[in-house]
Design a protein that fits this description.
Number of helices of chain A: 9
Number of strands of chain A: 9
Number of domains of chain A: 1
Oligomer: homodimer
CATH topology of chain A: Rossmann fold
Structural class of chain A: alpha/beta
Low-confidence stretches of chain A: none
Distance between the termini of chain A: 32 Å
Radius of gyration of chain A: 17 Å
Order of helices and strands of chain A: EEEEHHEHEHEHHEHHEH
Strand order of the largest sheet of chain A: 1-2-3-5-4-6-7-8-9
CATH class of chain A: Alpha Beta
């Protein structure tokens, strides 16, 4: 469980680090980013997981997400994993941004050749939390939250729905709420999980809720000018599922915002404050 | 004076735009970024110029500078020019990051082949302000401020020192305060301005102050772990010059910070608040 610091930058009074380690779940070296806010010696800090979207690495949100100011203010550790395994021997379709590297979809693949490395669900929900707990003594793993963007919003919802009680809070920016029925995610789910779509339902937020998974509440921001809104994202499907399941969803349509980090960063501080409030309860 | 919008993103309640136009000063197409914060119809907003450092374009600070939240809060327009002319026919030394493209040093070059396009001083202090005034009706050009990073901190200091009364406020992150005597800037000044170093003094903040230029006050943040501190930046030279000239310099050494955008973004909100306070006077 050794991690190696690749970069360390003082920022907003804390420390932004980039680390690598050899992942068992993904059977390859993985890179992740951790921001540790300023804190007193011995102080324990909650851990907020940020899962990124298609094509991203750990670096995109670290550079463009504008999370450090709010994380420092609220005393929250932010962990940003990569979105897939990468490197030599890792299956990929270089021309396809919706499958393979950068498109792990936070599932555990069961189908060859993907099943050898594409186990991002186990990685972000089991292995990396254990690594964080072992390597960051100020991390209070009894107070975790999860959020993410687009494919990472899907990942956050699925992680929280599959692990009731694990995360104190879950929110998302423009999440893919029902990947099993969206054109841009169906090919990946088919490749990773096989043709039996019944097996996809445990990796799909709307289907999980339909099948009985519950969360007390959710916060979702969605830009009204998001080009993926109508076909890929469709937050109204999540709203319907939450309504039927009595899950308190706060869905905020944000007028004029698109799918970019300019959107994410605009509401980042509000999301972190929302999670922090739940960490204090 | 036509500008073309290349990108427009809703962000932090305002609009982040990227624009191109054909520059007369630089005799080539130029790209710049403008953030217009949320404001009431008819409201006039102060304009804060951000000048970027070596190797950067308009995009680096736009993506990593974290200026929009504070700009929205204080109602300040942020303009981010490029750091040099670029493109076909523009002189360059592709292997040298300290000369040519990305390294305009905010001077008006007098030497061939640079003098044809490298007129970044005229561009950022004369031409682009006129473009902003003509294209952004909410811009109040009677309330301008200027700041920047590294080479752009040098640019901000020189722009303010050469134009007393033009800018209400001037600040910098890790500025090159005395480029005429620093190894990383001397080759560029020699190339752009020629071998007579007397001509360099009007493009050098410390020399300008020594030669009588005055500003009421300056704010400078400098990271103590900045790898360029000892040889390239040397803020103590600015401190000495300001002391001798009775310029009220606030020089803050920031413990553990380096030269990166993780440093800049950490103090961006404080700088914008500092400028905004002066815009209100």
């Amino acid at each position: 469980m050794t991690i190696e610091a690749k970069s360390l930058w003082r920022s907003h009074g804390g420390m932004q680090g980039v680390y690598t380690h050899v992942s068992e779940a993904c059977a390859c070296p993985m890179t992740f980013a951790v921001y540790v806010p300023p804190h007193a010696q011995g102080q324990k800090l909650p851990v907020l997981w940020y899962l990124s979207g298609l094509t991203c690495t750990h670096a995109n949100v670290m550079e463009k997400g504008e999370y450090r100011q709010a994380a420092a203010e609220h005393g929250v550790i932010i962990v940003c994993p990569d979105t897939s395994p990468r490197g030599e021997g890792v299956a990929d379709v270089p021309d396809d941004w919706k499958l393979g590297c950068g498109a792990g979809f936070y599932v555990d693949a069961t189908q060859e050749p993907w099943s050898q490395h594409y186990r991002m669900y186990s990685y972000v929900t089991d292995e990396l939390p254990a690594v964080i707990a072992a390597s960051f003594p100020m991390a209070d793993m009894s107070r975790q939250g999860v959020f993410g963007h687009s494919m990472g919003g899907h990942g956050a919802l699925v992680a929280a729905l599959r692990n009731p009680g694990r995360y104190r809070s879950c929110s998302a920016f423009a999440p893919i709420v029902h990947p099993a029925t969206a054109d841009w995610s169906r090919p990946a789910l088919g490749a990773y999980l096989g043709p039996d779509e019944a097996a996809w339902r445990t990796w799909d937020a709307v289907a999980l809720i339909e099948d009985g998974a519950r969360l007390p509440e959710l916060l979702v921001d969605q830009g009204s000018a998001d080009g993926f809104l109508q076909d890929g994202l469709r937050p109204w499907l999540l709203a319907e599922a939450c309504k039927a399941a009595s899950i308190a969803l706060t869905l905020r349509m944000q007028e004029g915002y698109d799918h970019s980090y300019y959107f994410i960063s605009s509401f980042m501080a509000e999301h972190i404050a929302w999670h922090a409030e739940r960490f204090r309860r």
